[in-house]
Amino acid sequence: MPCKGTSTTINWSDEENQRRLLAAMYAACTGAKPNNKDIAKFFGKNATESAINNQMRKVKAQAKQLESETSDDYEVPVRQGASKRKAKNDETPVAKVVKPIANVLVTPSQTMKDKCEEKFEDAAEYESGDAE
Fold it and tell me: Where does the record place the region Disordered (predicted)?
């Protein structure tokens, strides 16, 4: 019995698919015997060992069915087009270098000084009458 969903997606919140996943895990762990008393303890909600055992019978039966449906030469499908994620810090960050204009490094204080000098020169030209 295939999973509910399309051929490319599985609805993991579907109860039938969750039960199938549990059965597949049980089938994959051959020789493992779950401790139903501990499972009942972790499950909580007043679950008893007997109740867990009854539910596990259904899971075991489905696991046997999955084992019989799956052949030994079955290959797990791989999603096409999947690519590896690039690590966030894969490369060492490099500081940005600011190229100087006309091979002269200009600092903010020099720029302000130059602007002030231009204003004073303009004012001096205006006062002397040399302004255009």
Answer: 62-93
Q: How far apart are CA 54 and CA 41, in angstroms?
A: 15
Picking from 101-105, 107-111, 123-127, which range would have the lowest pLDDT averaged per residue?
101-105
* Domain end call among 53, 69, 85: 69
d(CA 124, CA 132) in angstroms, rounded, equals 12
Backbone angles phi, psi at 112, to 5 degrees: -65, -40
For residue 32, give the nearest of 1, 72, 63 by alpha carbon.
Answer: 63
Angle between helices 36-43 and 49-69 (to 10 degrees): 110
Work out how many domains the chain is built from and give that number: 2
Q: Is pTM beyond 0.85 here?
A: no
Task: Indicate the SS3 state at residue 104.
Answer: strand
Is 108 found in the same domain as 65?
A: no
